[in-house]
Design a protein that fits this description.
mainly beta; Neuraminidase; four-stranded antiparallel β-sheet
Length: 181
């Protein structure tokens, strides 16, 4: 008896694409690939490796990286991006921190933005947003009020419900979440 196994491997080709920033210190930590043409990118600005400086901009390509569009998100204060979650070329969520966790949403490709978390993550770091569908999603943050700040939405972020502490393991001492989950 002869048993043969043939293993083949196919790898996609990645072609690095350049982004042009106004100087040095810009880091593309977060991205979400929608398809072969559309990618949303989140950038943190850390000039001279000396701490975060505000950079509240969404960056998107719709042509596979040949050109890039920069869209200003109207968050205020010193803004740090912690996650990007794209549904398609028009709809994307950017999770930011400016002393409170904020989840900003665009539904017109980046031209305008709405903060979907006005009372959630107050005094807490919002780490991520994950869209399960166009309407359903989960957002997670660091412990707040003694337990993990995990919120659910069933209407695209218009309303939220925080998961009760009884349904979540108790955080360990000095335990925090991870950005861009």
């Amino acid at each position: 008896m002869f048993i043969g196994i043939i293993v083949t491997e196919v790898k996609a080709q990645f072609v690095p694409q350049s982004l042009t920033f106004p100087g040095t210190g810009y880091y593309t930590w977060y991205n979400d690939v929608v398809d072969s043409n559309t990618i949303w990118v989140g950038v943190d600005y850390i000039p001279n490796h000396a701490g975060y400086t505000s950079y509240s901009n969404a960056i998107k390509t719709s042509d596979g990286g040949n050109t890039w569009q920069f869209f200003s998100i109207p968050d205020t204060g010193t803004v740090i991006i912690s996650n990007v979650c794209a549904l398609n070329a028009s709809t994307c969520y950017y999770v930011e921190f400016n002393g409170n966790g904020n989840i900003w949403k665009t539904e017109n490709g980046g031209l305008s933005w709405t903060n979907k978390t006005t009372t959630q993550f107050v005094g807490s770091w919002a780490n991520f947003y994950h869209a399960i569908s166009a309407d359903t999603g989960v957002a997670g943050g660091d412990p707040n009020g003694g337990y993990w700040d995990i919120c659910l939405t069933y209407d695209g972020g218009n309303t939220w419900s925080r998961v009760p502490s009884a349904n979540i393991p108790t955080p360990l001492a000095n335990e925090y979440g991870s950005s861009s989950a």
